[in-house]
Amino acid sequence: MILNTEKDTQAAAKLFAKKLRAPVTVAFTGGLGAGKTTFIRYLCRELGYDGAVTSPTFSIMNEYRAPELTIYHFDMYRLSGADALYDIGYYDTVDKGVSLIEWSENVKGGLEGDIITVALSFDGQTRKITLPEI
User: Fold this and answer.
1) Span 36-57, pLDDT tens digits
2) What is the pLDDT of residue 14?
3) CA 122 to CA 21: how far, in whole Å?
4) Residues 120, 35: contact at Cβ < 8 Å?
5) What are phi and psi of 114, to 5 degrees?
6) Looking at CB atoms within 10 Å, which of 6, 16, 18, 45 has the fewest?
7) Within-domain flag for 29
8) Whether the predicted pLDDT of 134 surpasses 80
9) Domain with 93 in it
10) DSSP sequence for the chain
């Protein structure tokens, strides 16, 4: 699916949110500028969270409380491997809500539970997202 505009991103997030059932981990892959955080921002809105959604690059994890579930937003950019998941509390969230993992490729093999992979890409002109069938 091509994401030419913010409306495209919002529509994709709405479609994807309808299919998610907690507890679940969504593993996002894609380079810098691919649109991971923007997609997650819209996804959180569709899941019922109406507060600010920012990249947790430095905090590693942001927790958002929606009326019916808790969303855990992780950024694994600064992590060097799956062993770090113990230190950041990832395993405490796996069975509790929706875990959204940016830069999931940095902790490959360490994620647990029901895992759905979403791939985003940007070639300098076009953003694309690959949403799996759930």
Assistant:
1) 999 999 999 999 999 999 999 8
2) 97
3) 28
4) yes
5) -75, 110
6) 18
7) yes
8) no
9) 6-130
10) -B--SHHHHHHHHHHHHTT--SSEEEEEE--TTSSHHHHHHHHHHHTT--S-----TTTSEEEEE-SS-EEEEEE-TT--STTHHHHHTGGGTTTTSEEEEETGGGGTT---SSEEEEEEEE-SS-EEEEPPP-
Q: Is the pLDDT of residue 116 over 90?
A: yes
Q: What is the pLDDT of residues 20-41, one digit of tens each?
A: 999 999 999 999 999 999 999 9
Q: Let me know if residue 1 belongs to a domain.
A: no
**Count of domains forming the chain:** 1
Contact 62, 73 (CB under 8 A): yes
**CATH number, domain containing residue 78:** 3.40.50.300
Q: What is the pLDDT at residue 17?
A: 97
pTM above 0.90, yes or no: yes
Residue 99 in any domain: the answer is yes
Q: At a CB cut-off of 8 Å and minimum separation 6, what does 120 contact?
A: 28, 29, 30, 34, 35, 36, 39, 127, 128, 129, 130
Which of the four pLDDT bands, split at 50, 70 and 90, describes residue 69? Answer: very high
How many residues are recorded in the chain?
A: 134
